[in-house]
């Protein structure tokens, strides 16, 4: 490794601290062979969510993304684990919750900005360098890159765990044609601890380090169709994402960093009242929730999850709102989920309402949910 590149690496590290990057690491741009094997297994077992890049070669071969790639620079930014002034849920006003990765401004934007500053800094020093940056939605696995670059180890909860910030970090990376001395990967510190696997609400963590994405609540909250009934009771009051495998991790005990003002939670947005969500307009949704990462799938999944959360609370005060959806909402998923929720919460009067709606409902899936609601109330 020539002296010029050693010096540049030091300068990049110093600059990264100036612009608020909490951790930086350097890795080779060689093929991720171990990851490739794991991804093939995941595909064969149908454990993929469908949100990932489908081309395994692109996910594991940096040179396909940047010809003559030599290195990958990995970055991590720590986010808060505790909310200041969190509002309380009351019997009249039950609240839902967005996971910690959806607090503050969308982290994709925050990390992309840091990476583009880093790119500009490198370009100024080395105009010949080719670079490609990505955050979460890129082809590479952020976790595999961060692990190789010594940012943290890959925990049994399928998150990168750093010694300094636990797993409460956002990850991003930059592939470059510049050759840098790679950093040393960290030793896995999970040991015999298996807490995350044991408490995963849906058993999505099949074993340490292996996730069936289709069962993961974080994925399920983002789907747009009817949620399978076996998962509705596991959702609790979650509107987007799930933090269980992080909150039980001993490595996260006492970890709470507030290093970036733009990552601070707006309590009324990330712990919102549920009933107003049922009738929120597209415009209101965009104005209130548009800046957070949990809004990327639009309002429909959030509304469906809010209905399920009201059923979880058995919120009798929400029956008129749910019946209103059943009567007026044009979307079958919302009508059907509302019918099921009324069955979970309701009384004799609600039973009559469901029976009346059954007589006029045309959608076969909504009719199925009405049947479920009616049979629950008849029991």
In words, what does this structure look like?
This protein is of the alpha+beta class and 379 residues long. The chain folds into two domains: 153 residues, no CATH class; 184 residues, no CATH class. Helices cover 42% and strands 11% of the residues. The strands form four sheets. A four-stranded antiparallel sheet has the order 1-2-7-4, with helices on both faces. The protein is elongated, with a radius of gyration of 23 Å.
Q: Biggest sheet, open or closed, and with what strands and sense?
A: 4 strands, antiparallel
| Helix-strand pattern | HEHHEEHEHEEEHEEHHEHHHHHHHHH
Q: How many independent structural domains? A: 2
Compute the separation of the termini in Å.
Answer: 74 Å
Entry summary:
With about 375 residues, the chain is an alpha+beta fold. It has 17 helices and 10 strands. The protein has helices spanning about 5-20, 35-45, 55-60, 105-125, 140-150, 195-200, 215-220, 230, 245, 265-270, 275, 280-290, 300-315, 320-330, 330-345, 350-360, 365-379, and strands spanning about 25-30, 70-80, 95-100, 130-135, 155, 160, 170-175, 205, 210, 240.
